[in-house]
């Protein structure tokens, strides 16, 4: 039986609605002092490379102001529930297995009613196992590594019983503590599953304060993106075409990172566990974009660049460098 999921109060819903309207007219400004205070610790020294492939997924257009606060052009951006396959010489793993079969009944039905309309994917959305079958050239994953434990990053595991999951210890404690799951947390996906916990026990990397070198060779380095959830991480990947950072939901679209614009209050107030920490992390991503290609999980425009060929960017996209 599923654990109940926390529902926002009437006050929280009203606050989110009011904040949405206010943010359309007066979006939160970037913190210039914070930007000046952030230091860049540089990149790891990798000994090997990995390939990263975005699995096929059905996008949907969403109003830009709901994703990028106070932004109206373009009118819409594309959003998708994308999963990624990373191939390392020692293992192949699945990042953000976000969609199970019959997702409406098995996952979305557990969410608070106020969130269901905002997060419901298109009917044609591929379950993660279907997306894997659509890319038969990819090796089968040895384990899954979600950027965080929200339903749309782990519920695909429901169709993969027995597949081990690697999860930040802070994140696992957050999503499993108490009888009621946090907003967005669907615990069934992680229950009774082999789990390898890790800590961000490594030094600062780029603009991020903590890290964890997954294979010890500098090719897959997990970095601290806390805020959206307490244990959110990004995956810094050394590919033959350069560095790629899979950023989970620290941002929903690269336009947030470019402009340092937070998510709109609805649904951002419910999606982000700590809005202040999420905004600070956005500043760190903004500065890192000069060095690495940042791919938010739900940003279809960004992730499609990793689906051109098996694990490789096209020449045009490789030549495109992050803007100022």
Defining key terms:
Metallo-beta-lactamase, Chain A; 324 residues; 13 strands; disordered C terminus; globular; five-stranded mixed sheet; MBL_superfamily_lactonases; alpha/beta
Question: How do the strands and helices of this protein lay out in sequence?
Answer:
Layout: H1 10-25, H2 32-37, E1 51-54, E2 60-63, H3 64-67, E3 76-79, E4 84-88, E5 91-95, H4 103-106, H5 113-119, H6 128-133, E6 143-144, H7 151-154, E7 165-168, H8 169-176, E8 195-198, E9 211-213, E10 220-224, E11 233-239, E12 242-246, H9 254-259, H10 265-271, H11 275-288, E13 293-295, H12 300-303, H13 315-319
Parallel strand pairs: 5-6, 7-8, 12-13
Antiparallel strand pairs: 1-4, 2-3, 4-5, 9-10, 10-11, 11-12
Helix pairs in contact: 1-10
3D architecture notes:
Belongs to the metallo-beta-lactamase superfamily. InterPro entries: MBL_superfamily_lactonases (IPR051013), Metallo-B-lactamas (IPR001279), RibonucZ/Hydroxyglut_hydro (IPR036866). It holds the Pfam family Lactamase_B. Residues 80-298 form the Metallo-beta-lactamase domain. Keywords: Hydrolase, Metal-binding, Zinc. With 324 residues, the protein is of the alpha/beta class. The protein has a single domain (10-28, 44-319), classed as Metallo-beta-lactamase, Chain A. 28% of the residues lie in helices and 17% in strands. The protein is built from 13 helices and 13 strands. It has helices spanning 10-25, 32-37, 64-67, 103-106, 113-119, 128-133, 151-154, 169-176, 254-259, 265-271, 275-288, 300-303, 315-319, and strands at 51-54, 60-63, 76-79, 84-88, 91-95, 143-144, 165-168, 195-198, 211-213, 220-224, 233-239, 242-246, 293-295. The chain has a five-stranded mixed sheet with strand order 9-10-11-12-13, with no helix packed on it. The protein has a four-stranded mixed sheet with strand order 1-4-5-6, with no helix packed on it. The chain is globular, with a radius of gyration of 18 Å.
